[in-house]
Amino acid sequence: MTGLLSSLPSQARLMVDDSIVEVPCSSLSVGDQIVVLPGDRVPADGIVRAGRSTIDESSFTGEPMPVTKEPGSQVAAGSINLNGTLTIEVRRPGGETAMGDIVRLVEEAQSREAPVQRLADKVAGHFTYGVMALSAATFMFWNLFGARIIPASIYQGSAVSLALQLSCSVLVVACPCALGLATPTAMLVGTSLGATRGLLLRGGNILEKFSMVNVIIFDKTGTLTIGRPVVTKVVTPSRMDHSDSRQHFDGSWSEDDVLKLAAAVESNTIHPVGKAIVEAAQAVKSPNIKVVDGTFVEEPGSGAVAVIDDKTVSVGTLEWVQRHGVGDSLLLETDEELRNKSVVYVGVNNKLAGLIYFEDQIREDARHVVDSLHRQGISVYMLSGDKRSTAEYVASIVGIPKDKVLSQVKPDEKRKFVSELQENQNVVAMVGDGINDAAALASAHIGVAMGGGVGAASEVSSIVLMGNRLSQLLDALALSQLTMKTVKQNLWWAFAYNIVSWNSNCRWNITAPYGDNANAINCRSPYGSEFNWGGNKFTALKIQIFLTTAASLQIITATATPCCHGYQQ
C-alpha cells in the first residue's frame, strides 16, 4: 500500500486569476483549474481543458504504455505527465479520487479473512491447550519413567528438575503465532501486489476462491470485444451482385460519398454507431459538410435524419429509412462475410445510397486468454444478447466451442445459467462489464468486472480489472494460485517446525535459550510471504525458507548438549 500512496502528490499548482500558486492537494475543490507540468504526477481526478500530452497510468491500470490526453480526456490522480503541459479541471479531489478508492478498498479487502485463515486461527486457538497438555505429559513422563531409564550420571540434579526443564522447553519452542500468521501475511502481500498491477481484489477470501475456479463465463460485448463499433465495409450499387437489389439504390453515390453524408448527419449524435461513422469518414479524409440548421431529427434506437444541400439524408435501420421514403421492404442480399455484422442504411431522398457495416472489434488478447484457460483445464462459456450467428462468429474467433455459446439471453437468464452451473458443484467466475451483467456477476462465486465497465458491474464484482485488459484475468488467476501455494508452504513450515521441535524436546534436552531462538526464527518465517509472479522475484519467500531451515538447524545444534552426548556415549 505504501507504493500506491506514494503515487499521490502532496502539492498542486492551482490557477488563481492569471497566476499559479502551489497549494496542498487536500485543499483542492471541484471545479478548480490546476496546471500539471511534464514529469509531475496528476494531483486529482479531472478533465483536460487545455494542452496535449502523454500520461503514464501504469500505477493505476497496470498498463505500461503511455496514453495520449487532450482536451476532454479524463485523467486520474497519481498518473505521471510525460511531456506537454496540461490544464485540468478538478472533478474528484483528495480522498475522493479513484486512487483513493482503490487504497480504501484494498485496505478493506485485507481485513477480510479467507476460509483457510479462519481454519488456521481455529487450529492456533486450540494449539495453546495442546502445547500445555504436551508439556504436562513431558513432565510426567520424565519425572516418573524417564529418569529411571537413563543413568543418573547423564543429567545433573533430581528427576523433578530434569522433567521441569524439559516441560518448560516444550512451552518455549512451541510457536502458535507461526500458524496464525501463515495465512494473513500471504493474503496481505497478494492483495497489495494485485493493486500495483491494476487488479482490485476485494478480500483474501476472493484469492482463495478464485484459485479453485473451474468454470469461467464471458459476456461478449465489452468483454471479449472492445465494446466500441467500427466501420468495416461500405456497400454501394457498384458492389452489389444482384440486379433486383440494385434497383433500390441511387447509383450516383460512391463509398466516400456515403460516408461523408452519413457522417454529416451522425456528427450531431452521441450514439456509438454515429461516432464510428464520423471516425471512419475522418480516416479517409472526407470533406466536412454541414446539415441545414433546424432539420436534424433523431429517434433513439432507429436513426437520424437531416437536410444537406436540399437532399433529405436518413441514416439508421431499414424501417427508419423506409419511413423517410426509401424503397419497399426488400432485404438486400450481401456478402456472406457480412451476415454476422450490424448494418446501417443510408438513404438520400427516396433511394438507398449505400449500406454501412459495423463490427465490434474482438480484443487482441481474447484468443490467448481463452486458450490459456483451456490449457489449465477450465471450462469457458460465452453469453450474449446478440443473435446466434453473431455470437457463434465471435466464439469461433476466440476459441470457444459452439456448444458453450448461449445467444439472445436476457440478464435474468444469465443469472439462472450461472446458478445452474453452481448446482453442478462447479466453482464459477463471471466476467462482464455492463449493467446487464450485474445480476450474473453478483450470483457467481467470483464476479470479474472490466475496468471500463459501468459502476453497477464494478460494485457487485469480486475483482475489477482496472487496466481494462482481458489478459489481466490470467494475472489474477496466477496471483490467486501463487498466494494459496505460499499459504500452504507457510503452514507446512509452521507445522514441520513444531513437530520436529516437540519430538526433539520430548526425547532430548533442548535448553531454553536454544528453544527460544528457534521459536523467534519460526515466528518470523511466515512474514516471508511473497511470490515469483510475472518475472518479478520477491525475496521474502527465500527468507522464509532460509529462516525456517535455520530453525531446524538450531534444533539439531541444540541437541548436541553435554547431557545428550553423555547419553549417546
Automatic annotation (TrEMBL):
Name by which UniProt lists this protein: P-type ATPase A domain-containing protein
GO CC terms of this entry: membrane
Transmembrane segments: 127-150, 162-182
Stretches assigned to the P-type ATPase A domain: 8-107
Pfam families: E1-E2_ATPase, Hydrolase
GO molecular function, a single term: ATP hydrolysis activity
Family the entry assigns: Belongs to the cation transport ATPase (P-type) (TC 3.A.3) family. Type IB subfamily.
InterPro entries given in the database record: ATPase_P-typ_cyto_dom_N, ATPase_P-typ_P_site, ATPase_P-typ_TM_dom_sf, ATPase_P-typ_transduc_dom_A_sf, ATPase_P-type_domA, HAD-like_sf, HAD_sf, P-typ_ATPase_IB
Signal peptide range: none
Membrane topology qualifier: Multi-pass membrane protein
Keywords, alphabetical: ATP-binding, Membrane, Metal-binding, Nucleotide-binding, Translocase, Transmembrane, Transmembrane helix
Domain of life per record: Eukaryota
GO biological process, one term: copper ion homeostasis
Compartments where found: Membrane
